Amino acid sequence: MAKKAIGKQSVSFEHPPIICGAGSVVGQKEAEGPYGTCFDLAEEDPKLDADSWEEAEGKMQKKAAELAIDHAGIKKDQLRYVVAGDLLGQLMATSFGLMSLELPLFGVYGACSTMGESISLAAVLVEGGFADYVLAVTSSHFASAEKQFRFPLGYGNQRPRAATWTVTGSGAVVIRSACAEEEDGVEKVFVEETGKKLCVKVTGITTGKVVDLGVKDSMNMGACMAPAAGEVICRNLEDFGRKPEDYDKIITGDLGLVGKDILIDYLRSKGVDIEKQYMDCGIEIYSEDQNIQAGGSGCGCSAVMLAGHILKQLEENKWKRVLFVPTGALLSQVSFNEGNSVPGIAHGVVLEK
């Protein structure tokens, strides 16, 4: 068996797992943005007829999960595991939203990098032979995040220009094994037809480290997360022996306008220039006239852009290889109130047609 761990932080899959289905659910503001027509479902009611913002976010997760399962052409019972998380305490949206699926669940937390973490773990599970199908899901909701991390909506506080707007949305993908082992030990390549065109390989992952350069401004998460993104991009290029031009796109999750400049400068200081390949989901998801300051953020930001746009570009051969790098700011109410800085983390996922 070939060695799969390469470099210091990466994995190169011998039999790359395949993303065979995706689902995206967004709120009205996201639907009004430049990628509104890319998403599967837009909810006009931000509360989704629920009793609380947290319950509404859980409902979004379930809808995104059901869409991904349907688009993969499989039945729910074919899923072995769900790997999912959100921004809320005790992963409330995930726990309550996905409970009715009655599937084995790994609850994970990587702040806004959670989609990268979920896909990484799901890919390891299926490529390692522990499952044929795994669902990766995450979400965020503007109202639930504001309530937990910032101010109640009724407070009406002003937002600084460096602040980002939490995306109301949930993205989900079904990841299947590229091969299944029969009872006689002979590998059999999956050839079943699902009726859906989506077939994007996860060829590698680079797991990020927690990086803390001492930034304490929770309203400037781009500055908190940019160094972590820079470190994982450098590590991915080194571990895989690649240059930025080996990727059609290098896509971060939600650094926004402030974090983008910091990241590009940070990488240039290390002799790496990604400006030609660079894209940030937080900058792309909203238009400039939507009053969102530095851009979008939240777990749902990179997740819905992946499910609604990025995978389609790969499927249609517009891009051949993408480095998808969701980014997260690891703060909590407790850490912030105790005066701690805001560490960042990022996870790299290599996607290929």
Report on the structure:
The protein is built from ten helices and 19 strands. With 353 residues, the protein is α/β, with parallel strands linked by helices. It has two domains: 5-180, Stage V sporulation protein AD (Peroxisomal Thiolase, Chain A, domain 1), CATH 3.40.47; 203-352, Peroxisomal Thiolase, Chain A, domain 1. Strands 1, 2, 3, 4, 5, 6, 7, 9, 12, 13, 14, 16 and 19 form a 13-stranded mixed sheet that branches. A two-stranded parallel ribbon has the order 8-15. Helix 6 (221-240) crosses helix 7. The longest helix is centred in the first third of the chain and has 20 residues, at 53-72.
List keywords for this structure.
Peroxisomal Thiolase, Chain A, domain 1, two-stranded parallel ribbon, 31% helix, 2 domains, 353 residues, 13-stranded mixed β-sheet, alpha/beta, 23% strand
